Amino acid sequence: MFTVDGVTWGWPCDIERAAEMTPSQISGLMLDGSVFNDVLGTYMRYTVTVAVPLTCRDEYAALYEILTRPVDGHSFVLPYNNGLVAVTGRVARVSDVYVRMPDGGSCWKGVRFTVEGNHPTKAVSLGAVIAAGRAPLPETAVPEEGACYAYHDGAWVEAAFEDGDGRWY
């Protein structure tokens, strides 16, 4: 059972999952031979293969239309360990098979799709960064060059400092 954009699909299915711990661009081999691994977060990838009964052709077509919409992401609820996980993700690929029946009829079957998370499902907390002895960074996607941030009252705030370029001491 899985959910796409609030619609639950209860047909028999096989679901494969993969977790990718994605490193940042500053990760890599250090001069002393050690590896620095700056992990941005854990991104989930699910591959779902659905067995839809022949009596549910309209529902099958509806699922296919939802999955092939050209949108930046869908809301999925998928199995995770002993429960469920909500993933906002993009559908990377959809495939199925067209079958001609001996009686002359035809149908599409075996829809298979891949979901890749748009955001990490797991991320390092500020406390874990500080405990590891690393410099904490603000949660801003694209900071402006020269911007300065301070951690104040449990949140990052942009700090304003007087320009010292024209001062003489």
Q: Which terms would index this structure?
A:
169 residues; mainly beta; 7-stranded antiparallel sheet; two-stranded antiparallel ribbon
Summarize the structure in words.
It is a single chain. By secondary structure, the chain is mainly beta. It has helices at residues 57-67, 126-131; strands at residues 2-4, 7-9, 13-23, 28-29, 35-36, 39-50, 74-80, 83-100, 106-117, 148-152, 155-159. The longest helix is centred in the middle third of the chain and has 11 residues, at 57-67. The mean pLDDT is 87.
Helical content class: 10-25%
Largest sheet: 7 strands, antiparallel
Q: What is the approximate shape?
A: elongated
> Strand arrangement, largest sheet?
2-1-7-8-9-6-3
Q: Provide the gyration radius in Å.
A: 24 Å
Uncertain regions spanning at least 5 consecutive residues: none
Count all strands and give the number.
11
* Helix and strand element order: EEEEEEHEEEHEE
- Count the helices. How many? 2
Approximate strand percentage = over 45%
CA-to-CA gap between the ends?
Answer: 70 Å
- Structural class, please? mainly beta
Global mean pLDDT: 87
